[in-house]
Design a protein that fits this description.
single chain; five-stranded parallel β-sheet; two-stranded antiparallel ribbon; binds zinc ion
Length: 262
Amino acid sequence: MITADFHVHSDFSDGADSLEAVAAEAYARGMTALGFSDHGYAPYDTDACMKRERAAEYRAACRRLREEYAGRMEIHCGIEQDLFSQEPTDGYDYVIGSVHYLYAAGEYLTVDWKREPLDRAALLLGGDLLSAAEEYYRLAALVAERTHCQLIGHFDLIAKLNERERLFDEDDPRYVTAWRRAADALLETGLPFEINTGAMARGYRGVPYPAPEICRYLRDHGARFVLSSDSHRKDTLMYDFERQERVCREEGFELVRPGWMK
Ligand SMILES: [Zn+2]
Ligand SMILES: [Zn+2]
């Protein structure tokens, strides 16, 4: 049974709870390892990201908790780095690399939670929503080299709203070609991909990221995976892990201990 979770937000960025409250909940649940991964500073994302001047405070608070829980539960201090963020990531135990924005005609447009910026991206990119998806995967292919991450975050975030709103057909050859190209580029890095239950916890999707057919493609091409919850509240730590672990076993998705853990 997995008792570790490495994609966890606190109120240092857009999470609801303090680091201390999340750690206490994790420990009460019998977790053996907890990795914080608040959103690193990004000037176009100030609603969700950590304030630049609070980064050192965040790392110090993680360190304090690491000492407090030493011998009982591992605490790791990570960061979720957006593709377009230019902030340094030294001083963190690990980096999760994620694409949350498209950039078109001078505008950063989130793909994370609402329809309007997606429509805007489609318009600016001169096409339909599949054009926005193609641009998303063009960026996703670059996420490892741009963020120097150790873990690839929510690979198909662009499909977040698709289950409810049917924005585009995920079987469309244009969509499939786009994600396969990004997958092939990232597979070459050998980095693990997240299986991320965050959108399930928040009611957007019935399955984790990436979608099952993408996970199978990744599996068939040698990918390894790390299960994570992308929690923004302490009560969604390890969300649906038990069931997802079973799915991984049945499907042959190889779950690994992340490389930054010795
Ligand atoms: Zn993210
Ligand atoms: Zn996240």
